[in-house]
Predict the 3D structure of the following.
Amino acid sequence: MPSSSQSQTSFPWITTLAILIAVTVLLSLGTWQVKRLAWKETLIAQIDAAYKTEAENFDAQAIYEEFDKVTFSGSFIKKAAFIRSKTHDGKVGYHLIMPLKTSNGTIFVNRGWIETDAVDMPQTKTKVQFDAVLREATKSNPFIPDNTTDGPYLYWPEISKLETIFGIKSAIPMIAWQIPTQNDLARQPYPVGDKPVLKNDHLQYAIFWFTMAFILVVIGAIKMRSAARKAD
């Protein structure tokens, strides 16, 4: 009969500890994906609801949320900023940001994708009217560089930088993304404010991480049972 010291030595303590740590990590990843799933479903529902509603006329005193649909009327000011590294049909270009002067203040409009920064400026007296969705002026992902220049070329539409470039204060802390119409698709800039299609793979990821945790638990149980038999 093996001694107690031999039993302790034969028990796979290191393997068991490693499995426990791995299972904890995998369960944490699965739980995080479940939370991301709930967040993504809420966001998709918010976007769906926003694009189904009728646009309301812009009011600088109103409190807006992201993806609210608004009708803007006014004249573009002959100033432009360019958001780098934007793609359209496999080509790399820019998103064109211009200030629009309205009766309720000036707002910054993402007019859409252009291939080069050689853009024809609209006449300042030309009145325009269009629908747009309001988007937060934030980085779309954490890997986008910070805006370090005061010139017209930016990596993301930072409100304070745009105000410096244009010399104009924005009436709201958001960017209006122009919604395309059939006529807009024939020439640049191509508006990019159409409904975004968001991937939602978080359920699959959650199932994957939870399955991996279950497999490790089974492996750990087999290891412990085998060690117990050897101890006997």
Observations:
- Residues 54-186 form a domain with the OB fold (Dihydrolipoamide Acetyltransferase, E2P) fold (CATH 2.40.50).
